[in-house]
C-alpha cells in the first residue's frame, strides 16, 4: 500500500460545547466506532481511533469498501450497526470477537455499515491541508452514487437544520451534532471541531464503588435503577471527581460499606451479590461482567448498602428503556445527593426515551 496519507492516522477530534455554534458545517454525531479507511486498489485497511486494525472484525465491510470506493483514497468515518431502524452500540461491540468463526457468523447476523464524513486523500493527492468545505465537496463528488452498506453522512450549513436534526435524529440512536469550521484543515488528533450532545439527569441508587488507582479513595460510584420487577439493575458509573472530593465521598459512604455482597450486615444480601456468576450476568445488568474490552482488568468492586440516592447527568442510554436492561452509554456526571428521594423511587420510569426515528430517514435513502 502506497498512499499520500498512510496509516496509522489519529483522527481529528471535537470538544464539547453547550450549544450549536453559528457559521459552521454541521453533521450528525454517529454512535459507532470511529474508523479511517485506507484503500489502494484491492488493498483495504480499517484503522481505529487509536490506530489499531479493525478489518478482521468487519470482513463484509472490507469487501463492500473494496467494491464501492475510488481506486485510491483515505476516508474518515464511523462503523455502525443498525437493528430495527436505529443504531445499536451493544450489537456493534459484540462484533469485536477473537474467534474467526464467530466473526463470520456476526457478519451475517448483524452486518455493519460505514458512514463516511471526511476525505483525507484521493488518488495521488493528500487533502489534509485543504479546507473542510473543499474536502466535503470532493467527498460528495466521489460518493455521489455510493450504495449501502457505505453511506455519505448527511451535512448542512444551515444552523436551523442542525437544530432540527439535534432533536429528531436522537430517535434513530444518534447522540448529537458535530460542527466543523468550513476553512479548517484536517488536524490529526487535535480537538478543533465542536460537538453538542444531549444532557439529561436521573436519580440513581448508589450501590457500590471502585477504588481510585491512587489508593483507597473513590474512583467511581456504581449506579442502579429498579426495573418493573423490582430488581436493581446496574446502569453505569459516575466518576471524574476532584481528588479532595474522592476522599470526602469515601468518608461519607463508609457507614454503608459491606464486607462482601452477601455479608451479614443489616439489609441482608446485596442486590448484586451474584455478580461474578455468568448465569446472573445473563439474567440482568450487574457490575463486573466479562468483556472483550476489559481483558484481565480487575473488575472487583466494594458493595454498599443501596440506601443513598444521587442525581447524575447523562447524554443518552443504550438499549430500550422499556426492557429494563438499558444503561448509560457513557460515564455519568455527578450532580448532587438526593436525600429527599428513596432508593425504591429510582426506577426506569423517570428516564426519557426519545421519539423513535428511522435511521433510513437520517441517511435519506443513501
From TrEMBL:
**CDD domains per UniProt:** Adenylation_DNA_ligase_LigC, OBF_DNA_ligase_LigC
Q: Name one GO molecular function term.
A: DNA ligase (ATP) activity
Keyword Ligase attributed? yes
Coiled-coil regions listed: none
Key words, A-Z: Ligase
Q: Which domain of life is it from?
A: Bacteria
**InterPro entries xref list:** Adenylation_LigC-like, ATP-dep_DNA_ligase, DNA_ligase_ATP-dep_C, DNA_ligase_ATP-dep_cent, DNA_ligase_ATP-dep_CS, NA-bd_OB-fold, OBF_LigC-like
Which E.C. number(s) belong to this protein?
A: 6.5.1.1
The DNA ligase ATP-dependent C-terminal domain covers 216-341
Give all residue intervals belonging to the ATP-dependent DNA ligase family profile domain.
Answer: 11-197
Quickly give the catalysed reaction. ATP + (deoxyribonucleotide)n-3'-hydroxyl + 5'-phospho-(deoxyribonucleotide)m = (deoxyribonucleotide)n+m + AMP + diphosphate
Pfam families assigned to the protein according to its UniProt record, in alphabetical order: DNA_ligase_A_C (PF04679), DNA_ligase_A_M (PF01068)
What does the sequence similarity comment in the record state about its family?
Answer: Belongs to the ATP-dependent DNA ligase family.
Protein name, UniProt field: DNA ligase (ATP)
